[in-house]
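input
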Amino acid sequence: MKVTFEIKTTCSKPFHITVSEEIPVFELRKIVIDMVEYNTILCREDVIDLFIPHNNDCISILELSSDTVKSFIEQYPEYFHADNSSLWNNIHQLYIMDAPYMEKIRSKKEAPVYNDFIPPAKSTTSAKNILKNALTLLTGAGIITSAT
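output
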């Protein structure tokens, strides 16, 4: 079975990865860190921890853990929703703690905020935005070509 994780960082919008529940946790960690490096401004060296919140603690996903994703999920059913009757129960959140964020906290500065997306202008209608996005996607996919 496949499991989808929503990865939450301090410096980007959440992104998703899907893996087999049979892979080892250390492989999951490697995939997540590779995707953090690809999807954010962070480098792998910036990642301090990959974790889940559990009660008043943080449970780290260790580099050397040979547990499978399935067995890790089964260890924390209250966090990972033991009831699998819904599709949403197979989407789980993992969190990244990064060095730039920790430095901001230690120096009592404002924590970094993700500003790398531009919301649509208020004067633009939602239909116009949908059409603009559709044309962009179709052009990028080569379905519509320009006459130049």
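quick obs: The longest strand covers residues 47-54.
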